[in-house]
Design a protein that fits this description.
The complex is a heterodimer of chains A (about 500) and B (about 700). Chain A is mainly α. Helix content of chain A is about 75%, strand content about 0%. Chain B is mainly α and about 700 residues long. In chain B, strand 3 and strand 4 (about 185-190) form a beta hairpin. Chain B starts with 17 loop residues before the first helix and ends with a helix. Classes of the chains: A mainly alpha (about 500), B mainly alpha (about 700). The interface between A and B is medium-sized, with 38 and 26 residues.
Chain lengths: ~500, ~700
């Protein structure tokens, strides 16, 4: 039995209660189509998220948060690993709510209560994925995360692009859920348990004739989680969906649910593969290089800012995967992955919120239309540029250190894996390539276009921008506290063999 | 903070405040910084403020003088970089205090002169800023107790000289040097101020790079930059000597001095440095910049020589110093004979006289009596500082009045500018070494004696070069005075007078400073012998106390054939000194004052003279060769690389190629992104199979 005062339970209680109560308030106020109060629900949702954030933060600082355990007898494990992902996801959820504040007021929004309620419910799902130590629990959390986001993507009912995005997302979501549950059932059949720790132990002592089945189950889990992570070749839905979805929802998808995929992959796939004692690192390495290359190459020619960022987030999944691929031989690489996950949540979150702000203020996403934006929306532009350069890994921004650790981890592993340095080389070349399109946007915003009048920038967006600038520059110049946090959250794994 | 005093020499110890040694260079730096603020307040008072600050610095230096003349020293250190135990400090010993006073007081006079010379210039604040910065950097070099700190001042001097040489950065025609129509080996011998500043900066930088290499090499072994620390424990020298690195390290350091002091082969920047305001030229040539190199050798020489007593020989270092000095002395003196620009003649003369100083400092290390050559070199530095500053400032007055830098545009000025005429004769006689009454005579004679008596195997050739240079010096100085003040008025002056210009004496703030220095040249010259002996004694004690250098016991004193007041002088040196002066001034008189022979006709009279004249006038082709090798050829190479490599391989190949490749692959990836869900699902399924297959491999 999980104690009711453990972190995941408290978060479920706070977010779940508010998430359920929001639509009830709407009913009580007898709201119809046009007169709904966006501000009220946004404020309540924000308060709930802030309270959750405060609680996790308090637990980290003053509670006795156990170090990363990865396995437990229960279905949830209240450890630093889950807490780490909870912090990252809550930051993104707060970004999303703050960004929606003006975005949703400007666009058609029949029922804001439902909208914010869905965001809170999806957040519970994401947080629980990170805390799960049981396959069934994990799957339930996975679905709790996915189903609200299907609706959120298609929330603008009269917008065909939004509809198409939702349909594609749902199709692939359903397929990947099916594949995941298939993988889980295979592993249950082989080991007789759904507890992740037991499954892995079972795999370790598996009869040789059963091996192909076990590999099939691990492969299915990789594919299923890879869908959310946006790994090549499971990525094709992603640009279409990110482009069509409302910009704040895209923020949630790109910066948060993607990370849930990584949390799940870390808990299960790597452990399982280790137990199976196969050379799975190569598979992850190949996927990592494919993912980052395809993402960056496709991003170069994009004309739409959201779509470009979508491809960039595919590329970043590739960088993060480097750390997972070399994890058995370098703890630095795994730390780099977690670091990059955390940074990416802020960088990509800020970038998409900036897009939301630009859409609200100017209703454009085409890159050519961004000319002269540096003077029209100075703070949004600055936030966007800093996020982009942080994504590229330019020092002294925070994104530099995580990439440095990732590539350093790859070099670190070179004594055990002959091809590991090539991961670092591919990463560096890809980062250089990515500067081409990040730089292109920067040039458009600051060095092109005649001077036009300043337009008012949405205040919530400005708030997010200022937070991100402070975060990225501050932790770029002085990364020590963040490094300690990451080190604490990174599971120390006693790798067999 | 620790201060110590060495035992007294011949006067009771006199205390001085250690802070004064810091203030000598801190005041000019601080003054330079606040100069823009003063300029903002009032343009007119900047000059007085700058002179006032220079005076304060000079007074600080002066307060150290009694202590130093008594043989005392102040060595005051503070922690600079804790991590590597680096200390900053000042070292006020007899050498540096005398040098600091020479620099400070001559700079002070030049600053007074500048208030008149720069009157009406719009950028006068910038001028004062850099002048003060210049003086501060020089004093930093002089008073530092370690090489690294010296290097900071060294670079400061380089920066300030760059800024001041190109002070008139608009490159107006009148600010150029050289003749527009002249070509040497196909290159124009005509330079704009901005070009000249760059040339000075880059050429001295060659020396600076060598210097920093030598410095770091020594630091690598000794673990210190401090002059005193280097003498204290010589284990580093033993090790470097065993590796064969000792002499190279010091020669690299000397490379810095070669660049800064415009010695062969880095001498060519000095001529173009004449594009700066004349006050700057005076400062560069008399007190700062070129003297920095000599001072560095004077700082390092005793350290190297003291190692000899410990059995570590570094004679090659002194040989190189002596020969570089000798070659420069002769090379530049010859060119002084032919150049038509008055400031350039003086510039050649400076390089040549610095060569003398180097020769003396080098020969000192090759002789038994180190102190003889050392004193001679340093004494010449002092006397040269006085008469050369005076000559430059006087030349500046001429330029100011006549409006031309060519001596051929002057002539017959002795009636119009009587004071300048008199002062130039006085200072000029100092440069020529007029016997018994000028400082220049005594210091030059001391150098001759030191070379002659050194006992080095190179003594004879060096001595011949020294005497030959003295003849040439006397000749070109007479030529200069003759061309400017004697003979008929030039066309240029006639034209000016026709246009109503009245040729008159320069203003009082201008002629007083060079008048003072000219008077000092003669005044100290009259008591020159005892001044030299006093300096000799001071350095003898200083070298013995600080470096443990003792002169060899003198053998039986040769019975002198000289009359009483010249006792102690070397008769051979004295004789050649007198002869050189007589021959030089005599030839000069025949050609340029008496005008008995037309120099142009004389040169053209036969092919031999003509050829020599041409080679000298073309600066021995040295400048042209340097330009061909280090400017023209690299430019060609760069253009070739640009045309045949960058525009082809890089631009077409890599830039366009990469761009096309990226675009092409982006289009391939985009092609797979059909937007059709069925095809996406197919790829998804194929991907699943792919992953399982890799896992099973």
């Amino acid at each position: 039995m999980i104690p009711l005062d453990s972190t995941p339970m408290v978060l479920v209680a706070i977010l779940g209660t508010v998430g359920v109560v929001l639509p009830l308030i709407s009913i009580a106020r007898r709201e119809l189509g046009g007169n709904a109060s966006n501000t009220l629900y946004a404020a309540i949702a924000l308060a709930a998220l802030a309270a959750s954030m405060a609680y996790v933060g308090y637990e980290f600082l003053y509670g006795d948060m156990p170090a990363s355990a990865l396995f437990s007898e229960e279905v949830l494990s209240d450890d630093a690993f889950g807490g780490f992902f909870a912090v990252a996801m809550l930051i993104v959820a707060i970004f999303t709510v703050v960004g929606s504040f003006t975005y949703m007021r400007k666009h058609e929004n029949a029922s804001p209560a439902v909208y914010y309620s869905l965001i809170l419910l999806a957040t519970i799902g994401m947080v629980l994925v990170a805390y799960s130590t049981d396959l069934v629990m994990l799957f339930v959390a996975w679905e709790l995360m996915s189903i609200p986001t299907y609706i959120l993507v298609g929330f603008m009912k009269r917008n065909p692009a939004s509809n198409e995005a939702a349909i594609k997302y749902f199709l692939f979501g359903a397929l990947s859920s099916a594949i995941i549950i298939y993988g889980i059932s295979l592993s249950y059949g082989l080991t007789g348990s759904t507890n992740i720790g037991d499954v892995i132990e079972g795999y370790a002592s598996l009869d040789a004739s059963m091996m192909p089945l076990a590999l099939l189950s691990v492969g299915m889990l990789i594919a299923g989680f890879g869908f959310k992570m946006g790994l090549v070749p499971f990525h094709q839905w992603l640009p279409d969906t990110y482009e069509g979805a409302p910009a704040p929802v895209t923020t949630l998808l790109a910066a948060a649910t993607k990370k849930a995929g990584f949390a799940a992959a870390l808990r299960i796939v790597i452990m399982g593969a280790v137990a199976l004692n196969t050379d799975w690192t190569l598979a992850l390495g190949v996927i990592a290089v494919m993912t980052m290359t395809v993402g960056n190459v496709a991003a170069i020619m994009q004309k739409n800012l959201s779509r470009m960022l979508a491809y960039s987030s595919i590329a970043h999944a590739g960088y993060i995967l480097i750390g997972l691929a070399v994890a058995p031989h370098s703890s630095l690489g795994l730390q780099g992955s977690l670091y990059q996950i955390f940074n990416h949540a802020v960088m990509k979150g800020a970038a998409f919120i900036a897009v939301a702000g630009i859409v609200v203020a100017l209703a454009v996403t085409h890159i050519d239309k961004l000319a002269g934006l540096g003077r029209r929306m100075p703070i949004t532009s600055l936030g966007l540029v800093i996020s982009l350069f942080a994504l590229a890994g330019v020092p002294p921004l925070s994104g530099f250190w995580s990439k440095l650790m990732l590539f350093g981890g790859a070099l670190d592993a070179s004594s055990a894996l002959w091809w590991a340095p090539w991961l670092a080389i591919a990463g560096v070349l890809n980062s250089a390539l990515s500067l081409a399109y990040y730089g292109w946007i920067t040039r458009k915003m600051y060095f092109e276009g005649e001077t036009k009048r300043r337009v008012p920038e949405p205040k919530p967006v400005v708030a997010v921008m200022i937070f991100s600038i402070l975060f990225l520059v501050g932790f770029g110049v002085y990364p020590e506290p963040l490094l300690q946090f990451i080190e604490f959250a990174t599971p120390v794994i006693d790798w067999p063999g | 903070m620790a201060s110590e005093s060495a035992p007294a020499a011949f006067l009771p110890p006199i205390d001085a405040v250690p802070e004064a040694a810091w203030l000598v260079w801190a005041i000019p730096f601080a003054a330079a910084l606040i100069m823009p603020a003063i300029g903002r307040a009032s343009h007119r008072i900047t000059g007085y403020a700058a002179v006032g600050f220079a005076l304060m610095s000079a007074l600080s230096a002066f307060s150290l003088l009694p202590m130093a003349l008594a043989g005392g020293e102040i060595h005051d250190q503070i922690m600079w970089i804790e991590a590597i135990g680096l200390k900053a400090g000042v070292l006020a010993d007899p050498l540096s205090v005398i040098m600091a006073n020479v620099v400070a007081w001559i700079s002070f006079l030049i600053m007074i002169y500048s208030t008149g010379y720069m009157k009406g210039d719009r950028n006068v604040v910038r001028f004062w800023f850099w002048m003060l910065f210049f003086i501060g950097s020089m004093q930093l070099i002089v008073l530092s107790d370690n090489l690294l700190q010296v290097f900071f001042g060294w670079e400061g001097v380089g920066l300030a000289s760059y800024a001041l040489i190109s002070f008139w950065y608009r490159d107006k025609k009148k600010d150029h040097v050289g003749q527009e129509s002249r070509r040497v080996l196909g290159l124009m011998d005509y330079y704009a101020p901005t070009h000249a500043g760059m040339k000075a900066f880059i050429m001295t930088k060659v020396g600076d790079v060598m210097m920093i290499a030598g410095m770091l090499l020594i630091f690598l072994y000794a673990g210190t930059f401090g002059f005193r620390e280097l003498v204290g424990d010589t284990a580093w020298a033993v090790e470097m000597s065993a590796q064969g690195l000792l002499v190279p390290a010091f020669v690299l350091l000397f490379g810095g001095a070669i660049g800064k002091s415009a010695q062969f082969p880095l001498n060519e920047w000095l001529l173009e440095a004449m594009t700066g305001p004349t006050a700057v030229s005076a400062l560069i040539h008399a007190a700062t910049m070129v003297k920095a190199g000599v001072f560095l050798v004077a700082r390092l020489g005793p350290i190297v020589f003291a190692l000899g007593a410990a059995g570590i020989l570094a004679d090659q270092f002194f040989e190189i110093v002596a020969w570089v000095g000798a070659i420069t002395a002769l090379l530049l003196a010859t060119q002084g004979m032919t150049n038509p620009e008055i400031k350039k003649v003086l510039a050649y003369s400076t390089g040549s006289q610095i060569g003398y100083m180097m020769m003396a400092l080098g020969v000192a290390g090759l002789s038994y009596q180190y102190v003889d050559g050392y004193t001679a070199g340093f004494f010449h530095l002092i006397s040269h500082a006085m008469f050369k500053a005076s000559l430059f400032m006087a030349a500046g007055s001429l330029l100011h009045v006549v409006g031309s830098r060519f001596m051929t545009d002057m002539g017959g000025l002795r009636k119009r500018m009587k004071k300048t005429y008199a002062f130039m004769w006085a200072a000029g006689l100092g440069l020529m070494g007029a016997p018994f009454i000028t400082t220049g005579f005594w210091s030059k004679d001391a150098i001759f004696a030191a070379v002659y008596e050194s006992g080095s195997e190179w003594a004879l050739p060096l001595y011949v070069i020294a005497v030959l240079t003295a003849v040439i010096t006397a000749f070109y100085t007479t030529r200069m005075i003759g061309m400017v003040f004697f003979g008929p008025k030039s066309e240029h002056i006639q034209k000016m007078e026709e246009e109503g210009h009245h040729i008159h004496e320069a203003s009082i703030s201008m002629w007083v400073p060079y008048g003072i220095l000219a008077a000092l040249t003669i005044g100290i010259g009259i008591i020159g012998l005892s001044a030299e002996e006093g300096l000799h004694h001071l350095f003898e004690v200083y070298l013995a106390d600080s470096f443990g250098i003792h002169g060899a016991e003198k053998g039986t004193e040769m019975a002198s054939i000289l009359p009483g007041f010249l006792q102690g002088l070397n008769p051979v040196a004295l004789g050649s000194s007198l002869a050189a002066f007589a021959i030089g001034i005599g030839l000069g008189y025949i050609f340029y004052i008496g005008r008995h022979v037309d120099p142009a006709r004389f040169v053209n009279s036969n092919i031999f003279f003509y050829a020599i004249h041409k080679v000298i006038l073309n600066r021995w082709y040295l400048n042209a060769i340097i330009y061909w090798c280090f400017v023209v050829a690299p430019l060609w190479l760069a253009r070739g690389v640009s045309r045949y490599f960058e525009k082809t391989a890089i631009d077409y190949g890599m830039n366009d190629g990469l761009q096309k490749a990226a675009g092409w692959s982006a289009r391939v990836v985009q092609g797979t992104q059909t937007g059709v869900s069925q095809s996406y699902l197919f790829v998804f399924g194929a991907g699943l199979l792919f992953v399982v297959l890799i896992l099973m491999m």
